[in-house]
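Re: weekly structure request thread

Next one in the queue (139 aa):
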Amino acid sequence: MGTFTASADLPSIVTAPRAARHLVKHLLEVWNSGHSVTDAQLLVTELVSNAVDHAGGEASLSLQLTLSDGWLRISLADGSSIRPIVRELDHTSPRGRGMQLVAAIAGRWGCEDHEGGKRVWFELGPPGQRATRDGDPAP
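Done, posted below.
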């Protein structure tokens, strides 16, 4: 299998998560990746929703998908330097669960500086491959 890459710029508006979900679904089908479309859509929704909430309407969001050696990497760059955190679950709050989902479902995830803002990314391992607790593939 070769390497596939796609990117899209999204406005920081309430409809951006839906656009990102549709793009992810379409690309995974075209690439015949074998990854869970549901998992990828859920996690990209969390990244884009967080960016829309925290980066504000002036920011431009840059979504990138890469499929290589069975690993699917989805990243989102925005103009905000506020880094995501995995919060303790608070059953009294309806918010704050997004990064918990990313940490629980993704094989790996992280955040890095990017052009005055940040890039948040997650990776889904090759379909059928177990992941260990630290996110590295199990032997």
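The longest strand covers residues 60-68. The chain has three helices and five strands.
Next request, please.
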